[in-house]
Amino acid sequence: MFRRRSKAVVALSLLMVALLALSGCAGSKNDTAAPTNTTDSKEPIKIGFLGAKTGDVAMYGLNTLKGLNMAIDELNKNGGLIGRQVKLVEEDNAGQKDQAINITNKLISQDKVVAIIGDPTTGITRVAGQIANSKKTVLLSAGATGTNVVEIGPYVFRDTLLDTIAAPATMKYIIQDKGWKNVALITSKNNDYSVALSKIFSDAIKANGGNIAIEEFIQDKDTDFSGQITKIKSANPDVIVFSGYYTEGALIMKKAREVGIKAIMVGGDGLQGDDLMKIGGDAVEGSISYAGFSPEQPTANTEKFINAFKAKYANELPDLFSAQGYDALMLIAKSIKDANSADPEKFKDTLAATKNYDGVSGTITFQASREPIKSPVYLLEVKGGKFALLKKVPVEVK
């Protein structure tokens, strides 16, 4: 009886020791595996890039990447963020929404990024923003200027000059300063950015005393605009307002010049690309577009950025997307520092509180809606095959 009892006691004791040992091992494992979003972690803070490196709008994505990589290098050279290095995770959506959906999910679920910068276009930003917001990951577009972006939710931001501010400022200059009142308005029907911008341009034209003499429609990737241009010639406009991208804009103006139309083209920052001049040549000389950045007449902060950019990229001047990409990453970095955390649930609030940030692409303030107010508006003119500063229009921050 005693012997059996002793064996039972010993067995029970051994079982308890084993359980304690297992419990201790489990506790040790949990204690040493710090979550990636805490300040105690030594893992790199991962920022995702969402944009095109190939395809029709690759120029936007590639130039954004240049600004992002400059910011990453600068941050890591100075010790990183909250004691951790910063790593950029790059993907290529080729300007396609379906690929952007897959990449956004991958960046969040597999790569464990704390923020995504991109897409530079409005349509893809809307799609990606829905995913990022639902998964509580900050998404900051360094290019989307159209409507219905930040309305998606509290994790969605942008650092761009808004079309709703820039287009009216542009049309005020065109109609009141230049006296060009009769407008031919061209919209690309399968381009969300173009459709939304045409509505803003249309309202601004009317508000400034202008007249839409004719309205025509195209589609992205069209190459023959003979029908539209023939109708536009008969309307004899003072100016052609095109709300789409540089490739179609260049081809439209080549056809316009072929039939003898002398009116210049005016548009948004979708025209901002060297291919406008490469494709359009002399036909796009004098074209006017707005932007949130110009390397001309820089502030001290912008001049420092320009010099560093030229040193890194073989004396190349930064464009709008490079500057806004740099600012986007630095805004994320500042918000992480201010929150002392790489947890998006925490640093989204410090990001939203940004006021009068001295960015290289202008002064940036987030309103209560998280919409950015940027000043000034830069009106750029194609002159000698390059974008040249035509006029700075200050924006009042309310």
CATH architecture of the largest domain: 3-Layer(aba) Sandwich
- The secondary structure category is alpha/beta
Whole-number average pLDDT? 90
Across the major sheet, the strand order is 7-6-8-9-10-14-15
Order of helices and strands: HEHEHEHEEHEHEHEHEHEHHHEEEEE
The main pleated sheet reads as: 7 strands, mixed
Q: What percentage of amino acids are in beta strands?
A: 15-25%
CATH class of the largest domain: Alpha Beta
Describe this protein's structure:
- The structure is a single chain.
- Mean pLDDT is 90; it is low at 1-39.
- This protein is globular.
- The chain is 45% helix and 19% strand.
- By secondary structure, the chain is of the alpha/beta class.
- The protein has a seven-stranded mixed beta sheet, with helices on both faces. Strands 2-1-3-4-5 form a five-stranded parallel beta sheet, with helices on both faces. It has a three-stranded antiparallel beta sheet with strand order 11-12-13, with helices on one face.
- 46% of the residues are buried.
- It folds into three domains: 1-33; 45-160 and 297-366, 3-Layer(aba) Sandwich (Rossmann fold), CATH 3.40.50; 164-291 and 381-393, Response regulator (Rossmann fold, 3-Layer(aba) Sandwich), CATH 3.40.50.2300.
- It contains twelve helices and 15 strands.
- The protein has helices spanning 2-32, 58-77, 97-109, 122-134, 163-177, 192-207, 226-235, 246-258, 274-280, 300-312, 320-339, 344-352, and strands at 45-50, 86-90, 115-118, 138-141, 156-158, 182-188, 211-218, 239-242, 264-267, 288-291, 357-359, 362-366, 372-375, 377-383, 386-393.
- Helix 2 (58-77) links the parallel strand 1 (45-50) and strand 2 (86-90).
